Amino acid sequence: MKIHRKLAKLARRETYRRGWRRAQRSIFRLPFGPVLAGVDQRRLKQIQERYAGQKYADIDHWLRVNRERVQDLKLHRVPPKRMLDLGCGGGFFLFILKTFNHSVLGLDIDESPLFRELLEAFGVPRTVSRIEPLKPLPEFQQQFDWITAFSIGFDRHPETLVRWGTKEWDFLLRDLQRHLAPGGKIYLTVNPLPDGRYLTAEVRDFFASHGADIERERIFFKKGICP
Fold this sequence. Notes:
There is one protein chain. This protein has 8 helices and 7 strands, in the order H-H-H-H-E-H-E-H-E-E-H-E-H-E-E. The chain has helices at residues 2-27, 32-36, 41-50, 59-72, 92-98, 113-122, 166-178, 201-209, and strands spanning 82-86, 103-108, 126-128, 144-152, 180-190, 213-215, 218-221. It has a 7-stranded mixed β-sheet, sandwiched between helices. The longest helix has 26 residues, at 2-27. It is globular, with a radius of gyration of 18 Å.
């Protein structure tokens, strides 16, 4: 019974937080008009038609998904920040941030022609690199106020596809902290495990021990990584 009560309490808290985020999106709207004003609509339409059927070719859908991410993190309501997005894909998130004068940089591998064309159309710069377990990120010659990563796919060992444990996450988080400016933030979202959970108990406890605010797939280090 105690477990059921704890789960019910957790569910209520997460339901409230999700509802509050939706409410704030309505209060602090982010219209698409100004966002799209600086991009060649004809070029975007050509890209969408050329890659029709591919997941990320639905440009309007992914812009809307990333608009919600920007709103939820309140990044349309703060002064310009230096942003690094890991696994940036086609650059939807960073493109929206650019319209609010944030300084943006993506990091990803270069295997998708669709992503390459989208990044060029959006004018989003990218460092080409693969995130691998127990290997540091490249040097960026700057520090960042925010480091983000959405729907993470790099947290799997390439040979076995087994998800990372605390050893791999500890290495990456310490490396990310090295690239954070004082007072910087790290925001991650992970994909679900085969059993429906987003994190193993061990990894969840590890994140929490380093100061993370955890809500389902969301892992938010609001003040960087605590020792």
